[in-house]
Amino acid sequence: MRTLYEQLAESLEQRIREGQLRPGERLPSVRQACTQAQVSAATVFQAYYLLESRGLIEARPRSGYYVRPPARGHARAARPEAARTESTPVAISELVFEVLDSTRDREVVPLGSAFPAPELFPLERLARAGARAMRHLAPQALTAELTAGNVRLREALRARYVRQGIAVNPDDPIITNGAMEALNLCLQAVTQPGDTVAVESPTFYAALQALERLHLRAIEIPTDPTSGVDPDGLAEVLRQHRVAACWLMPSFQNPLGALMTTSRRQAIVRTLSQAGVPVVEDDVYGELFHGATRPVPLKAFDRDGLVMHCSSFSKCLAPGYRVGWAAAGRHAATVQRLKMMSSLATAVPSQLALAAYMEEGGLDRHLRQLRLTLARNLARVRQWVLRHFPPGTRVSQPQGGYFLWVQLPDPVDTLALHRAALAQGISVAPGAIFSADMRFQNSLRLNAGHPDDPRVEGAIRVLGALARQAEPPR
Amino acid sequence: MRTLYEQLAESLEQRIREGQLRPGERLPSVRQACTQAQVSAATVFQAYYLLESRGLIEARPRSGYYVRPPARGHARAARPEAARTESTPVAISELVFEVLDSTRDREVVPLGSAFPAPELFPLERLARAGARAMRHLAPQALTAELTAGNVRLREALRARYVRQGIAVNPDDPIITNGAMEALNLCLQAVTQPGDTVAVESPTFYAALQALERLHLRAIEIPTDPTSGVDPDGLAEVLRQHRVAACWLMPSFQNPLGALMTTSRRQAIVRTLSQAGVPVVEDDVYGELFHGATRPVPLKAFDRDGLVMHCSSFSKCLAPGYRVGWAAAGRHAATVQRLKMMSSLATAVPSQLALAAYMEEGGLDRHLRQLRLTLARNLARVRQWVLRHFPPGTRVSQPQGGYFLWVQLPDPVDTLALHRAALAQGISVAPGAIFSADMRFQNSLRLNAGHPDDPRVEGAIRVLGALARQAEPPR
To answer: Do A347 and B347 lie within an 8 Å CB cutoff?
Structure first.
């Protein structure tokens, strides 16, 4: 069911698409819109934020909201780059560690961070739920629920799968120490050292690190910044290489923000099923959609138990609790055994807190609010980038999550830019950490998930100035 | 400083050793001893429990405590078996999973379990400490303390190392998801697939599983059931094989309960240092000594940063919290990076609860009580085994922990015994799961860490009857 603000946004979007509201035209003021649509000011604001996040309108200081020229945003959308056709061993870690270390200092503006601001999460309510649950814990539960995890939490997660129309096997989900562990265990369950794994291009660096740790090789699949992995490109890779597994992030891919269309998802699951290749689906941003409905995971189209769906609460509810899970289909038993061998079980206090929070209700309300906040902020940061970066800069226009992928117009080494920015107290994630062979030097990932940090616009201005001065790579 | 009960136990022990109290002689009643030594009844009980756990005296129902004949206990102590001299690939997991699965059912008497009874731990106080700490959590801490762990908890652990006279490097300790993760990360930090790792014989099955998961080979070092790994045996193994690392449990080894002497520890660290071979030291039972002082870890003798000391709170304070740590010496940075790659960080609620508990004080008092309880119970279960098992059965006499290693007098397949016992609602850990090639078929490990379970003596009687009827292995 659509909420009021989603209905309002939709009707406005239709008027823009049909030309009734034209580029440059001012939208009704919030007060006017309230009267016209018979809704509250909050509803109007939410609708406008949503349209802003979709790139359809823009806020002008002290003036209101205006319809954006479509061509401009489109021309500046991020552009795909050619993927590598040879598989490569992976040795990316040193660089990733250098970059991640730099984001930990609280004095640094965290545009290179992978986490949204912790203030966005209901930490007090979680702590209270956890405290109550721990006080009433049956001591036997501490060892009885090894290794798969707390029964109540698993039930609550299963109920959410059912709501999404996804059938999971009775052993699923297995609770893990964050999605990171889930992803690693799933990958290990279906590979042996020396195997080749197909990944997006650019790729989330933790996928590359997992490959490195497990002595695997990477082969890149062409990935569009808007629509994600190309099914034909994947089919081509499967024809040319012996691929043991695939690691994909279909929703709001890190770093591109790409959202795979439903038909692409279906085609990809079909292709992988035909080839019998399992896929590790990283869906940690799936709940952070800015539009009206949650993207449907690959898992929903899986008939052969080959999709290993991994997610967590770390990005959408409870950072630091380290609770994730894997619905690993036909490999569930193997994943559970690997979990037992490598870390035995997941922390019970964290699991109980989340189980209690979910049973009390309120997760969906929290998520609705979080999505709006992130959508609004992504739109703002995007505008700042377009304003302050050199002309010709391309910026992704994600429909969810909190990352922007920025491609600079001239050949520039963003790793050097990262170091220069750090000297000025700003972190960014340079493109080089998202590829096994240090490509994407020209790009960087910015975190727009810190809505209350007043330093962000100034930091974007500084980054823009640095980008103008930057030298081409040697 | 010795406590009153330890002083009392010592003076009684001296009188036994010097023949003033002779085998079969009755000790003073608790009331008499109170008057003689001017101490409380609790102190006398604790002293008697301690002597009982050391095998020096035994309780006779409704009669009091008696000095035990030394020869009998000695003759029946567990006997070492020859170690394998060839390295072997490891594929033990299926069997281990079968056995571990069987211990989860609450209806089953958990003699095969690896955990002591959860009622032995201050779970309520931990929950309260955790609740307070979570309510006052600075949200930034949730992401700022990735990956090494909570600063306060690490400080508290460092202080305990200092108290034991152990210097740890400034990056240490790294907080992990239980000792299991610490051990796995340390092992991975110093090995590559195909490498050979020297292990005890018998070996803790999780070490074998870690080797299996990381595609490593095992070479066994001769291990005495009382004094642990033989330094000469280790030196011989290092001469004959290219060993990448060692995995040892010097204190109350699982499953033998062996306690390495200080001089053996020094010799082993010297030998490994000369060969430049790192050692993963599993010290999860180190705090569960039944005697007067904590065994000194190998780490204390390490001058080259080659000892990777791993432990946790899971067996001594907080089962289910999944908080362990590694002080990994010269490999600390590598371990931290592997941790980041495989599970990112350890659950913050668990870490905060433990940090707050340690800061409030009371850990040492809890540990003193726990040691007494476990010592008393180990002695009781040991007596039951000697009473109910076939004549000639050998039973270990551990100075700490809560495991008994039982060697049956005739060739018997304890895996079949495990299955027969399970059919009667009793789990045991058969010897076969403690070796890469299914040896130790004649032995089994019993858990004596369930002091309040009234079913234990009856279960031991059933096991004894099954052992008498058991068939030799085919």
So the answer is: yes
Min distance B3 CA to chain A CA atoms (Å): 31
Q: Are A314 and A322 in contact (CB under 8 A)?
A: yes
B334 reaches A (C-beta below 8 A): no
Q: What's the whole-model pTM score?
A: 0.86
Domains of chain A (ranges; CATH) run: 4-73 (1.10.10.10), 91-119+366-469 (3.90.1150.10), 122-363 (3.40.640.10)
In B75-116, at which residue ranges do the beta strands (DSSP E only) sit?
A: 88-89, 109-110
Q: Which has more pLDDT, B250 or A76?
A: B250
A178/B141 CB distance under 8 A: no
Instruction: Dihedral sign for Cα B200, B202, B206, B208, please.
Output: positive
Which stretch of A96-110, B44-58, B237-251 has the lowest confidence by average pLDDT?
Answer: B44-58
**Is there a contact between B123 and A143 if contact means CB atoms under 8 Å apart?**
no
CA B234 to chain centre: 21
- The pLDDT tens digits of the residues spanning B156-185 come to 999 999 999 998 988 899 999 999 999 999
**What string of H, E and C letters represents the secondary structure of chain A?**
CCCHHHHHHHHHHHHHHCCCCCCCCECCCHHHHHHHHCCCHHHHHHHHHHHHHCCCEEEECCCEEEECCHHHHHHCCCCCCCCCCCCEECCCHHHHHHHHHHCCCCCCEECCCCCCCHHHCCHHHHHHHHHHHHHCCCCCHHHHCCCCCCHHHHHHHHHHHHHCCCCCCCCCCEEECHHHHHHHHHHHHCCCCCCEEEEEECCCHHHHHHHHHCCCEEEEEEEECCCEECHHHHHHHHHHCCEEEEEECCECCCCCCCECCHHHHHHHHHHHHHHCCCEEEECCCHHHECCCCCCCCHHHHCCCCCEEEEEECCCCCCCCCCCEEEECHHHHHHHHHHHHHHCCCCCHHHHHHHHHHHHHCCHHHHHHHHHHHHHHHHHHHHHHHHHHCCCCCEECCCCECCEEEEECCCCCCHHHHHHHHHHCCEECEEHHHHCCCCCCCCEEEEECCCCCCCCHHHHHHHHHHHHHHCCCCC
Does the beta carbon of B104 lie under 8 angstroms from any beta carbon of chain A?
yes
Q: Does residue B71 have a pLDDT over 50?
A: no
Give the mutation candidate from A153, A341, A352, A427 for the B interface (greatest B CB count, under 10 A): A341
- Decide if B140 and A118 are in contact by the 8 Å CB cutoff: yes
Question: Among A177, A190, A212, A217, which would you mutate to test the B interface (most chain B Cβ atoms within 10 Å of its Cβ)?
Answer: A177
Report the alpha-carbon distance of residue B351 to residue B346 in Å, rounded. 8
Q: Which of B322, B340, B346, B433 to mutate to test the interface with A (most CBs of A within 10 A)?
A: B322
pLDDT of residue A146: 80
Closest chain B residue to A344, measured at CA = B180
CB contact under 8 A, A213 and B143: no
Summarize pLDDT for B96-142 with one digit per residue, the tens. 888 888 777 788 999 999 999 989 999 999 999 988 888 888 777 77
d(CA B196, CA B183): 16
How many beta-carbon pairs below 8 A join chains A and B? 195
The string of pLDDT tens digits covering residues A337-383 is: 999 999 999 999 999 999 999 999 989 999 999 999 999 999 999 99
Hey, of B344, B351, B447, B453, which one would you mutate to test binding to chain A, going by the most A CBs within 10 A of its CB?
Answer: B344
CB within 8 Å of chain A, chain B residues 130-189: 130-131, 134-135, 137, 139-144, 146, 176-178, 180-181, 184, 188
Could you tell me the two tokens for B205? 């099955």
Chain A neighbors of B125, CB-CB under 8 A: none
A337 CB within 8 Å of a chain B CB: yes
